Amino acid sequence: MESRKLIMAGLIAAVLVCNLSVSLAQNARPGDDLKGQLLYEENFSTSKGSLWAGSSDDNWTYYFDNGRYKMVVYRMNSWKSYATRNNYSNFIMDVQARQEGGTNDNVYGAIIRKVDWNNYYNFLISGDGYYQIAIRENGKWSPASWKRSDAINMGNATNLIRVICNEDAFSFYVNDVLLEEYKDSSFSSGNIGLTAGTNYAIGSAEVSFDNLTIWQIKNS
């Protein structure tokens, strides 16, 4: 009787471990296998001690707002960006981006490997379902086109942005869907940042960001 109980307990434990493994596998996100050390995280719960600042003028404003980092751009065809001073090379960047209002013909997303404001990469999405990968080098934008993707939640919605930078290889995800893989060796390291802006539609761009994390690529 005692041996049967032990066998039964062992079988139950094995089933629980199996179910846990399946659950973890199902919850794993693309690129999670590359994750090493957590280098940085920000939930924007307070501006005290944060690397992120706030400012306001007639054209734009950016500030902490109820546990999110909000960026509003008022002027047509105008962008506002903010970047930290931390330097990263090979990493995974995650951030939740949410359109709060304004026109859907907007832009918002992530800055990666920013050397200075004349040299960096930009991964942008829009409220009307487009994305763009752009390089600014020596103060000039490289030719880049907007592409449509059904993975992007349109309008006043949240999109989970993930960028994987591994040497000269880049992978760009929205809501765990791979939008594009890209190779470029212009910048090997730099700062990270956030961007919001308008195009040529009437109306402001109103976007907020939350739960930003930077993970080091394993063995890099």
Describe this structure in words.
This protein is mainly beta and 220 residues long. It has 2 domains: 1-30; 36-217, Exo-inulinase, domain 1 (Jelly Rolls, Sandwich), CATH 2.60.120.560. It is built from 1 helix and 16 strands. It has one helix at residues 2-27; strands at residues 35-42, 55-56, 60-65, 68-73, 79-83, 91-102, 106-116, 119-125, 130-137, 140-141, 147-148, 158-166, 169-174, 177-183, 191-198, 205-217. Strands 1, 2, 3, 4, 6, 12, 13, 14 and 16 form a 9-stranded antiparallel beta sheet that branches. Strands 5, 7, 8, 9, 10, 11 and 15 form a 7-stranded antiparallel beta sheet that branches. A hairpin with a 2-residue loop joins strand 3 and strand 4 (68-73). The longest helix has 26 residues, at 2-27. The radius of gyration is 20 Å and the shape is globular. Mean pLDDT is 91; it is low at 11-25.
Key attributes of the depicted protein:
Jelly Rolls, single chain, mainly beta, 1 helix, 2 domains, 220 residues, 16 strands, 51% strand, nine-stranded antiparallel beta sheet
Compile the SSE list and pairings.
Layout: H1 2-27, E1 35-42, E2 55-56, E3 60-65, E4 68-73, E5 79-83, E6 91-102, E7 106-116, E8 119-125, E9 130-137, E10 140-141, E11 147-148, E12 158-166, E13 169-174, E14 177-183, E15 191-198, E16 205-217
Antiparallel strand pairs: 1-16, 2-3, 3-4, 4-16, 5-15, 6-12, 6-16, 7-8, 7-15, 8-9, 9-10, 9-11, 12-13, 13-14
